[in-house]
Design brief:
This protein has 73 residues and is an alpha+beta fold. The chain has a domain of 49 residues: 2-Layer Sandwich (Double Stranded RNA Binding Domain), CATH 3.30.160. It is 25% helix and 16% strand. The chain has 1 helix and 3 strands. It has a 3-stranded antiparallel sheet with strand order 1-2-3, covered by helices on one side. Strand 1 and strand 2 form a beta hairpin. The chain is globular, with a radius of gyration of 14 Å.
């Protein structure tokens, strides 16, 4: 069994719900009502996503940073 290091993005929506996603695993995301609760949930989501993924095909993404941009909408 290999150990993977995956980037997890955590955001909070307008209702205060925390949303976590893993860019390297398509469709891998979850949500929770608190910051502390998001971690066990995203770990479980990762485990479920890895059951369906070929580990050798997971892209190796290197986290570079986060930028907040304002755009006209």
């Amino acid at each position: 069994m290999r150990r993977l290091s995956l980037t997890v993005l955590i955001e909070r929506d307008e209702d205060g719900i925390f949303v976590a996603s893993v860019p390297a695993l398509r469709g891998c995301y979850t949500q929770a009502g608190s910051y502390e609760d998001i971690f066990p949930r995203i770990r479980e989501a990762i485990e479920l996503c890895l059951e369906d993924e070929n580990i050798d095909e997971i892209p190796h993404l290197v986290f570079q940073g986060v930028h907040q941009l304002e755009v006209e909408a």
